[in-house]
């Protein structure tokens, strides 16, 4: 069953259920490491998968959460013998990297993905239920403004 239990978005930790939510401000250090919120760390104790999002941010999954998301995205296109299956695999899996949590509760963002964050060192860590997003702070602020405009 692993750390995720039966549902990809529910993380049992010491008998309690964990759901990623909230917004946190962190900085990337000179080596490309970023701390994760203390409340999230136990969910990533067995590792994580980080990948580019189509929304100008990075997505961070638990190992089991990533496996579940991969199965969901492949859906009926599980076979790589079909063109649609190969395209889905390339789009979702090619830019994914496994990362580990260090003893300080940080992950090392691979250089290929660090480039996507630009030169900005201030990062918004956003809980999105079954995964976490990492946004350059300035882009996140623009995203929030877009959301406010939609609400009006």
Topology (SSEs and partners):
Layout: E1 11-13, E2 16-18, E3 23-27, E4 33-35, H1 38-41, E5 48-52, E6 58-62, H2 63-74, H3 83-93, E7 97-99, E8 106-108, H4 111-114, E9 122-127, E10 132-136, H5 137-151
Antiparallel strand pairs: 1-2, 3-9, 4-8, 5-6, 5-7, 6-10, 9-10
Descriptive notes:
This protein is α+β, with helices and mostly antiparallel strands. It is built from five helices and ten strands; from the N terminus they run E-E-E-E-H-E-E-H-H-E-E-H-E-E-H. The strands form three sheets. A six-stranded antiparallel beta sheet has the order 3-9-10-6-5-7. Strands 1-2 form a two-stranded antiparallel ribbon. A two-stranded antiparallel sheet has the order 4-8. Strand 9 (122-127) and strand 10 form a beta hairpin. The chain is globular. Mean pLDDT is 85; it is low at 1-10.
Structural class: alpha+beta
**Rg computed from alpha carbons, rounded to a whole number of angstroms:** 16 Å
What count of domains describes the coordinates? 1
Strand content: 25-35%
| Rounded mean pLDDT score | 85
In helices, the fraction of residues equals 25-40%
Distance separating the two termini: 43 Å
Q: Which segments are poorly predicted (pLDDT under 50) over 5 or more consecutive residues?
A: 1-10
Q: Could you please say which CATH topology applies here?
A: Chemotaxis protein chec
């Amino acid at each position: 069953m692993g750390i995720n239990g039966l549902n990809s978005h529910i993380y049992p930790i010491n008998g309690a259920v964990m759901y990623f939510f909230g917004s946190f401000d962190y900085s990337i250090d000179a080596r490309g490491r970023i701390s994760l919120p203390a409340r999230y760390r136990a969910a990533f104790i067995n590792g994580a998968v980080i990948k580019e999002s189509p929304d100008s941010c990075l997505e961070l999954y638990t190992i089991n959460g990533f496996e579940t998301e991969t199965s969901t995205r492949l859906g009926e296109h599980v076979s790589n013998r079909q063109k649609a299956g190969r395209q889905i695999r390339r789009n979702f899996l090619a830019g994914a990297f496994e990362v580990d949590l260090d003893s300080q509760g940080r992950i090392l963002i691979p250089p290929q993905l660090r480039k996507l964050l630009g030169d900005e060192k201030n990062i918004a860590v956003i809980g999105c239920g079954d995964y976490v997003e990492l946004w350059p702070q300035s882009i996140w602020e623009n995203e929030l403004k877009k959301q406010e405009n939609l609400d009006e």
